[in-house]
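Retry 2 of 3 after timeout on previous attempt. Resubmitting C-alpha cells to design endpoint.
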C-alpha cells in the first residue's frame, strides 16, 4: 500500500474527470472525513484515512484489499475503471443516459447501447465523453463512453451505436473472481 505517484495520480484523476468533471475534488474533500487514494498491487483503492492507517498495520503480502477498489493499472500503465467505482461516479456524473426497460438486459450482458434503447439523454453530451447509464427508475447500471453526442444521436438511425459499453453491474457475476 503506497500513495499514488504524480503520473498515476494524473491518470486516475483524468479518468475520473471524464465521468464527473470538476467534482473529483468532492471525492477527497468530504464532510464525513478525509479520504485518499492508495495503490496496492496495481489497484487503486479509495478509502478514509482512518481505514488507511489501520490497514498500514498489516504487512503488504497478506493484505488483500481495503476501502473500495476504483480500478487498476494495466501492464502498459493505463488506468481502467472497474464496476466497483460506479457508486462514486453515479452521484456526481456530468453526462447520463437512461435506458428503456428492454435495453437494460442487453446492456447488463455487456452489449453497447443503440439509439433505439435510449429513453433520454443529458443535453449537451459531447462525443467520447464518459457517461453513466441508468435505468428508468434512476438505478445506476454501469458506465461507458458516448459514441455520438446528443445532437448527433437525435439525427441518427435507430440502429446506430450511441454509448460504448465499458462496465455494467453484470460484471459482478461474470468476473466475480477478478474484482477485489
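Retry 2 succeeded. Sequence:
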Amino acid at each position: 500500500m503506497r500513495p499514488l505517484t504524480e503520473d498515476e495520480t494524473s491518470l486516475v484523476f483524468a479518468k475520473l474527470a471524464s465521468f464527473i468533471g470538476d467534482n473529483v475534488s468532492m471525492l477527497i474533500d468530504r464532510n464525513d472525513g478525509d479520504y485518499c487514494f492508495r495503490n496496492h498491487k496495481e489497484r487503486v483503492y479509495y478509502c478514509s484515512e482512518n481505514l488507511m492507517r489501520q490497514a498500514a498495520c498489516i504487512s503488504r503480502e497478506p493484505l488483500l484489499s481495503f476501502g473500495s477498489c476504483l480500478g487498476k493499472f494495466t501492464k502498459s500503465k493505463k488506468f481502467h475503471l472497474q464496476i466497483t467505482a460506479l457508486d462514486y461516479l453515479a452521484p456526481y456524473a456530468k453526462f447520463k443516459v437512461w435506458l428503456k426497460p428492454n435495453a437494460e438486459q442487453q446492456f447488463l450482458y455487456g452489449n453497447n447501447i443503440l439509439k433505439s434503447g435510449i429513453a433520454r439523454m443529458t443535453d449537451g453530451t459531447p462525443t467520447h465523453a464518459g457517461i453513466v447509464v441508468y435505468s428508468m427508475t434512476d438505478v445506476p447500471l454501469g458506465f461507458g463512453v458516448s459514441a455520438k453526442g446528443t445532437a448527433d444521436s437525435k439525427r441518427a438511425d435507430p440502429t446506430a451505436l450511441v454509448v460504448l459499453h465499458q462496465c455494467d453491474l453484470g460484471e459482478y457475476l461474470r468476473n466475480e473472481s477478478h474484482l477485489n
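Attempt log closed. The longest strand covers residues 33-40.
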